Backbone:
């Protein structure tokens, strides 16, 4: 089917699962092993230093080569792209005091979203869904966020356009982003992740509506495999967005000093969006299940109609077969065989019986 029903989400999920597992059963907790697929050639680091009156964004080769940025008095956002370079990730962990268990979670790209907070740090691992450039297809990757005093560090598997609006807001200096602390930046990152998930869900919804319209016009226009793939994409998306509610709720209830009370109204709004996202996923899943049941019912109805026609045809020929069988027997004493009109009379009986049954079946609307 040449339709936009395939968003590529399943392909993105499967591709991230096709890797040789490096971690062995019984390995020590906190052992740094990259569990995923290398999606970029080299690990890149960007540092974004901002305040009410300034904003700078630069790329650096490594944390050891940029001492001028390591002790900035202003809020600093470190964005790391590419997780395959374990030495670079380990260096970031040493510099910012990221616990080894958090680094292990960062390197495990197939892990479940999670939230953990202490007095001096906050760690969040979440799935990012975004529409690829050109539209029509979705991509999935893992985003890890570590918030500590004075710095916020994000870890992505590959390049993403999800954060482009935040870059523009920081550059333009409009709104609250430059004037608030890193906890507000953390909220902004989560907010744009939820917004892109809503956009991805809208794409799935449009594809599902397209399938529904096609089935109404022609049942054979959509195969069961296409419908199953679309439903699988919705189920997968629901699986990825379900933990978002728990993460945002836990962040709102956090007692960490890094999350100010002024952020609570924004987190409440974000929690509502996350709950709406999950509810819409559940509704869309039921919609897909309803379309599947309708398609199966229509296929069964068509099969029943075919079987009914074949049964009627068999019933019409059944008495004719009986008469032909009777007069096809080789007995010497059959009076009708000596009659000159026997053959035409038998044909009249055939046509009369068959015609009567056809009229009867049509009146009962079986044919």
Residues:
């Amino acid at each position: 089917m040449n339709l936009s029903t395939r968003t590529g989400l399943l392909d993105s999920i499967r591709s991230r699962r096709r890797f040789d597992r490096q971690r062995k059963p019984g390995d020590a907790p906190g052992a740094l092993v990259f569990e995923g697929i290398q999606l970029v050639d080299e690990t890149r680091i960007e540092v974004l230093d901002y305040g009410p009156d300034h904003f700078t964004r630069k790329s650096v080769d490594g944390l050891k080569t940029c001492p001028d940025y390591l002790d900035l008095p202003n809020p600093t956002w470190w964005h790391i792209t590419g997780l395959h370079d374990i030495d670079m990730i380990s260096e970031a962990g040493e510099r910012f005091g990221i616990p080894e268990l958090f680094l292990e979670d960062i390197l495990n790209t197939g892990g479940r979203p999670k939230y953990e907070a202490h007095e001096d740090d906050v760690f969040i691992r979440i799935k990012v869904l975004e529409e690829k450039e050109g539209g029509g297809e979705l991509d999935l990757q893992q985003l890890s966020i570590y918030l500590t005093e004075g710095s916020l560090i994000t870890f992505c598997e590959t390049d993403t356009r999800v954060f482009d609006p935040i870059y523009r807001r920081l550059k333009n200096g409009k709104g609250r982003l430059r004037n608030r602390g890193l906890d507000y930046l953390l909220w902004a990152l989560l907010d744009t992740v939820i917004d892109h998930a809503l956009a991805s869900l809208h794409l799935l919804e449009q594809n599902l509506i397209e399938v529904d319209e096609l089935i109404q016009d022609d049942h054979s226009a959509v195969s069961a495999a296409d419908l199953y793939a679309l439903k699988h994409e919705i189920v997968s998306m629901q699986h990825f967005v379900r933990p978002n509610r728990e993460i945002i709720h836990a962040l709102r209830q956090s007692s960490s000093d890094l999350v100010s009370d002024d952020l609570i109204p924004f987190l409440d709004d974000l929690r509502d969006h996350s709950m709406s996202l999950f509810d819409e996923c559940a509704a869309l899943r039921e919609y897909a299940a309803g379309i599947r049941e309708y398609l199966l019912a229509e296929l069964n109805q068509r099969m029943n109609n075919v079987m009914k026609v074949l049964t009627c045809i068999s019933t019409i020929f059944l008495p004719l077969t009986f008469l032909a069988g009777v007069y096809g027997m080789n007995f010497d004493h059959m009076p009708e065989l000596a009659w000159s009109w026997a053959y035409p009379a038998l044909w009249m009986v055939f046509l009369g019986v068959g015609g009567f049954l056809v009229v009867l079946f049509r009146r009962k609307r079986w044919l």
Observations:
- The longest helix spans residues 264-327.
- The beta strands are 44-51, 54-60, 76-81, 114-117, 121-131, 138-148, 151-156.
- The chain has two domains: 9-297, 307-363.
